[in-house]
Amino acid sequence: MWKNSSVVMLPTNKIAKIYTSDDMSYMDNNPTYINKPNGYHLYFTSNEIIKKGDWCICSVDKSIGRVIKILSHNKSKIKDIIIRNTTDDIISSENNFKKIIASTDLLLIKETSTMSADSFDQTVYTDKEYLPHPSKLFIEDYIINYNKDNIIKKILIDVDDNNNITIKKIKDSWNREEVIRLCNKAWLKMPNTSNMLEEFNDWIESNLCN
Description:
- 18% of the residues lie in helices and 38% in strands.
- It has 3 helices and 13 strands; from the N terminus they run E-E-E-E-E-E-E-E-E-E-E-H-E-E-H-H.
- It has helices at 136-147, 176-189, 197-207; strands at 3-12, 18-21, 24-27, 39-46, 55-58, 64-71, 80-84, 89-93, 97-103, 109-115, 124-130, 154-159, 165-169.
- Strand 5 and strand 6 form a beta hairpin.
- The protein starts with a strand and ends with a helix.
């Protein structure tokens, strides 16, 4: 299922996929060491409900952390969450954070716990998996647009059962022919409009002139 997602590029002092130099960005296909200057990662966020174990970005200071506990309030639908980042545990409203659903940062590992199927075995098993990762093609496309000062900020993203992701750009401009086709589709779905086609075409000519 396609989800609306925001794309955020943030600096890192760890091994990165994207680096900047002289106001230009480029992709490092063979990152080999930490502390290389001007490294960045891409983070894809959504408005999904935040749950324990999720990685999130703070909308205030762009810090990244993992949710270790959800604090419920009986009188409010808004919950507080405890976020663990690199320095401390922070209690804050969930409204201050966005869930990370994909990233180029391979250090963002999601942990899931499962109980043994054996009723006599109370062992809890912890599985670890990487967050979905954008394709090399998308990263290259992002860099090309970034260097043209046309930064990709909004996309549609789909994650399958194997954590593979498909990304589509959100179209934000249409030419005249495309708008006419869209209007026609909407018009045909409306009831009792067949006898008003001439009026519709006149409206198109009046409002979508070349």
